[in-house]
Amino acid sequence: MIMEKPTDHPQVKPRKVGILFANLGTPDGYDYWSMRRYLSEFLSDKRVIDYPAWKWQPILQAIILTKRPRSSGEAYKSIWNEAEGESPLMTITKQQIAKLNAVLTEEYGDQVMVDFCMRYGNPSTKSKVAEMVSNGCDRVLFFPLYPQYAGATSGTANDEFFRALMNEKWQPAARTIEPYFDDPAYVDALAQSVEQGYAKLDKRPDLLVVSYHGMPIRYLTEGDPYHCQCQKGTRLLRERLGWDEAEIKTSFQSVFGPEEWLKPYTVEEVARLAKAGKKNIAVIAPAFSADCIETLEEIQEEIQEAFIHAGGESFTYIPCLNDDDAHIQALVGVAKRNLGGWLK
């Protein structure tokens, strides 16, 4: 016999599976206070800067956050999507999610709810987890958009997701994804972007610089697998392209603070290459799933300037995969593997 619910019973919505994609984040604007809020949240994360709070916070709040919001704000202003009132990372992420939602809902219909959040800034992970739960998601696949694992990227995104779950009275079942830098479809999408980029050039570059976001060497010695996954990722890309080792080079960008970081540093390496006679290079940044401040401003301005100043002649930036269809299909494949057993 089926028992009817009492009239005052809380409404229970039809079961769904939430697929929540996550990226790093973006300030709400490039003004001083928007930048300060964003940078304070980002640089207060112990996964990013792991110094003791008693030592780090006075430096951060009293020194760094008095000057850096202005300089970072100028950098963001130079790339800002004024038409939409948002950063390029936000614009591209929205485009990615629109395509991912279209493919996944075509596959699974109303069994799924597809959305995105940011680790820092808005929309917050907490707000999007709450929204999914309120819409009947009793299972959530959390998908940080970082091909390689690093504690300061995937790790901290997962931390924030788990903290968000702690706020839910009825906590959904949860899964996170494994690193997908070596997924064949992802490697193929990356290789295709290189092939398409080279096909547009009148002259083939002397070298492809594969520039990954950096991290302190200490993190590697403490067990973070990021460096190894970057090196393997470059090798897999080279093998897929069918190139010799001399045609491709791994480097690391975005150094911050006094510690020694993973080397070679991209900004120094491109200058060295120019002086060594490599006058025509291309740069790709496969640690980023979407073009952002580190690619649109740092690579295409600071790093390109270092190369030209050292005698380089031709500098080509190959964009991130963004919402390219091959990239979307690779991400869908990763999601579907991790949804196994949850959906028909």
Structure overview:
- With 344 residues, the protein is α/β, with parallel strands linked by helices.
- It starts with 15 loop residues before the first strand and ends in a 6-residue tail after the last helix.
- Helix content is 47%, strand content 16%.
- The protein has helices at 32-43, 53-79, 88-108, 125-134, 151-165, 184-199, 217-221, 226-241, 266-275, 293-309, 325-338; strands at 16-26, 112-121, 137-144, 173-176, 207-213, 248-253, 280-284, 314-318.
- The protein has 2 domains: 16-180 and 326-338, 3-Layer(aba) Sandwich (Rossmann fold); 184-318, 3-Layer(aba) Sandwich (Rossmann fold), CATH 3.40.50.1400.
- The model has no long low-confidence stretch (mean pLDDT 95).
- The strands form 2 sheets. Strands 2-1-3-4 form a 4-stranded parallel β-sheet, with helices on both faces. It has a 4-stranded parallel β-sheet with strand order 6-5-7-8, sandwiched between helices.
Which secondary structure elements does this structure contain, and how are they paired or packed?
Blueprint: E1 16-26, H1 32-43, H2 53-79, H3 88-108, E2 112-121, H4 125-134, E3 137-144, H5 151-165, E4 173-176, H6 184-199, E5 207-213, H7 217-221, H8 226-241, E6 248-253, H9 266-275, E7 280-284, H10 293-309, E8 314-318, H11 325-338
Parallel strand pairs: 1-2, 1-3, 3-4, 5-6, 5-7, 7-8
